[in-house]
Design brief:
There is one protein chain. Helices cover 43% and strands 17% of the residues. With 362 residues, it is of the alpha/beta class. It has two domains: 108 residues, Aspartate Aminotransferase, domain 1; 241 residues, Aspartate Aminotransferase, domain 2 (3-Layer(aba) Sandwich). Helix 12 packs across helix 13. The chain is globular, with a radius of gyration of 20 Å. The chain starts with a strand and ends in a 5-residue tail after the last helix. Pyridoxal-5'-phosphate (PLP) binds next to helix 3.
């Protein structure tokens, strides 16, 4: 079977896949209530929060939309910090629902500059909320969210965080850093198939929610809260994914959050070191290189598309390509969730064989 090394969906352990084959149960009954309440408590440990946490049926993008429509009104001023494809998407969602978005875009491959964010916040005191991506999957860069959140709190703005490809793999203590709404996706660091978004909501976000006028129905946090009190979700949940998440969280609890984070730090470093030893440059500014996905730049006469094909066809390893303007210019190795050092060693060994065939060094 091919080894999936794209930055999501990520491989799932057999136990998690088996959990999905369980017979359906009544989503308004006591068994489901127990599962949902158990998952919600465990998620709070991984979010490092005492805030409300909801499980939404939808992908990460749905969670980002939920964050926006539940806290903002049309014409609200929003600062969007973007360092890549997903930062741009967050801004587009806010704009689609009528927010007045000021984009603060940084060169792809680099992290957001905290001083520039400060200048943007000083320049427009009417800004209500700031959108920020913790880990930009398209470029393999992790923003300094601790510093960014501290700054945003200094200005007393709401901070909405895309943590789709970071939470559970890269440290994000939600309460300590004061992040108001934080969104993650099941198919990333959680070892679960795609289809669920998990989201936390602070007290300040609830206050914003009470005033927010953007249209919403499916994603309405108020409905999610009322139903969670009964151990339910407002709408029929993606039940197999909920079973999968329950199993994955049990496995993750056994490993322990801090061991999981340490494993990702080690594997991130191992991947970067291995890639550099092969003679390839990293695309991401190494100071901010992600521990959940490594982006690798082209060099010399390397044909990246050919490399990806050779890796898939001859080695059974599926790598990620570059998105949008990065197509053919970078490739990405996903290493979040269910990943071991042996998996990455396998990727590096295969790359060593595949690179000359794809024109590198030849
Ligand atoms: N944000 C980030 C950082 C992501 O990596 C992704 C998915 O790759 C998304 C948002 C969108 O998530 P989804 O594809 O689950 O809608």
């Amino acid at each position: 079977m091919a080894q999936l090394r794209i930055p999501g969906p990520t491989p799932c352990p057999d136990e998690v896949l088996q959990a999905m084959t369980k017979q359906m149960i009544n989503h308004r009954g006591p068994e489901f209530a127990q599962i949902v309440q158990g998952i919600t408590d465990q998620l709070k440990t991984f979010f490092q929060t005492e805030n409300d946490v909801f499980i939404l049926t939808g992908s990460g993008t749905g969670g980002l939309e939920a964050a926006v429509v539940n806290t903002l009104s049309p014409d609200d001023k929003v600062l969007s910090i973007s360092i890549g494809v997903f930062g741009d998407r967050f801004a587009t969602i806010a704009r689609t629902f009528g927010a007045e978005v000021t984009p603060l875009n940084f060169e792809w491959g680099k992290a957001a500059d905290v001083d520039e964010i400060r200048r943007a916040l000083e320049a427009d005191t009417a800004i209500k909320a700031v959108l920020v991506t913790h880990n930009e999957t398209s470029t393999g860069v992790t923003n300094d969210l601790e510093a960014i959140s501290a700054l945003i709190k200094e200005f007393d703005k709401l901070i909405l965080v895309d943590a789709v490809s970071s939470l559970s793999a890269i440290d994000l203590p939600v309460d300590k850093w004061g992040c108001d709404v934080v969104v993650t996706g099941s198919q990333k660091g959680w070892m679960v198939p795609p289809g669920l978004a998990m989201i936390s909501i602070s007290e300040a976000a609830w206050q914003a929610h009470a005033q927010a006028k953007m249209p919403r129905f499916y994603w309405d946090f108020s409905k999610a809260k009322i139903y969670l009190e009964k151990g339910q979700t407002p709408w029929t949940p993606g039940m197999p994914m909920v079973f999968a998440l329950a199993k994955a969280l049990d496995m993750m609890a056994k490993e322990g959050l801090f061991n999981i984070l340490a494993r990702h730090i080690k594997i991130g470093q191992m991947t970067r070191d291995g890639v550099k030893t092969l003679g390839l440059p990293l695309f991401a500014d190494e100071k901010y290189a992600s521990n959940s996905v490594t982006s690798v730049a082209g060099a010399g006469s390397l044909n990246i598309k050919k490399l990806i094909t050779i890796m898939r066809e001859e080695h059974g390893i599926v790598l990620g390509g570059g998105q949008l303007t990065l197509g053919g210019k970078i490739f990405r190795i996903g290493h979040m969730g269910f990943v071991s050092e042996a998996d990455i060693q396998g990727v590096l060994d295969a790359l060593k064989i595949a690179l000359p065939k794809a024109g590198f060094g030849g």
